[in-house]
Amino acid sequence: MSVTGRPTVTLKLATSLDGQVALADGTSKWITGAEARAEVHDMRAAHDAVMTGITTLLIDDAELTARPGGVLAERQPLRVVMDTRLRCLPDSAFLKAGPAMLIHGPGVDPAELTAAGADCRQVALEASGRADFHEALEVLRDAGVSSVMIEAGGVLAASALAEGVVDRIAWFRAPKILGGDGRPCVAALNLEALEDAPMFKRVSVREVGADLLELYERA
Ligand SMILES: NC(=O)c1ccc[n+]([C@@H]2O[C@H](COP(=O)([O-])OP(=O)(O)OC[C@H]3O[C@@H](n4cnc5c(N)ncnc54)[C@H](OP(=O)(O)O)[C@@H]3O)[C@@H](O)[C@H]2O)c1
């Protein structure tokens, strides 16, 4: 739990050297190597919840389960999707893989997804028209979650950074370059001054297979 009483938030990024998470068409399997991907499963298992954005789910059909050593962990993190308009598919691999929470905005009917097993929680909308991040963290706190790992694309990562809720970054960086037509790991922050940039302090760097894992904490 963070000092403010909300769950601590770790932003996991798996990128090329130039900070891209996918090709322009969304292809992202696989940027980092097998060792890094295995370590991500250990990290999922060590968090109370794993959160992604609906676009990642729709593109990757990801389960987001923790499978350390290739085996489904007995204790799974709560799997959470920020999905303002409830675009998650009832027959998605994500919902079939077990208990999952969809955080959505007002004015959408959760009946079909609830019937498919999803725990649908309504929050207010942010000024951007998306499900409110701070309220989502309150929902998670009230559900007993004290640590969340965000594993999403650049849009949700940018929201988390802009809202100032990222306590740690775990950045896996592969020795390849995808170029500016790829998808950046952090979407637009609309900064007007360098002093406004979210700042982090690097606390460790180590090799994971051919990749590097850099750990940062909020400065
Ligand atoms: N390499 C990696 O580590 C990694 C990890 C995950 C994903 N990816 C790749 O990233 C790509 C998708 O990235 P993306 O940036 O387009 O999507 P994303 O970050 O996964 O999801 C963004 C969507 O989440 C929804 N959302 C709901 N509440 C939000 C909030 N408060 N703030 C921000 N978003 C909110 C929005 O859609 P609604 O408003 O409609 O709900 C938004 O468009 C895929 O190609 C995927 O493969 C890479």
Provide the residue-averaged pLDDT: 95
Strand order of the largest sheet: 6-5-4-3-7-1-8-11-10
Give a short account of the largest sheet: 9 strands, mixed
What fraction of the residues are assigned to beta strands by DSSP?
25-35%
Q: Tally the helices: what do you get?
A: 6
What distance lies between the first and last C-alpha atoms, to the nearest angstrom? 18 Å
Question: Residue ranges: pLDDT <50 for 5 or more in a row?
Answer: none
Query: H/E series, N to C?
Result: EEHEHEHEHEHEHEEEE
Radius of gyration: 17 Å
Helix/sheet category: alpha/beta
CATH class: Alpha Beta
Describe this structure in words.
- It is a single chain.
- The protein is an alpha/beta fold and 219 residues long.
- The protein has a single domain, classed as Dihydrofolate Reductase, subunit A, CATH 3.40.430.
- It has helices at 34-46, 54-60, 93-96, 111-115, 133-142, 154-162; strands spanning 8-16, 20-22, 49-53, 78-82, 100-104, 118-122, 147-150, 168-174, 183-184, 200-208, 211-218.
- A 9-stranded mixed sheet has the order 6-5-4-3-7-1-8-11-10, with helices on both faces. A two-stranded antiparallel ribbon has the order 2-9.
- The chain is globular and about 45 Å long.
- Residues 13-14, 21-22, 26, 28, 31, 52-56, 59-60, 82-85, 87, 126, 130-131, 133, 151-156, 159, 183, 187 line the site of NADP nicotinamide-adenine-dinucleotide phosphate.
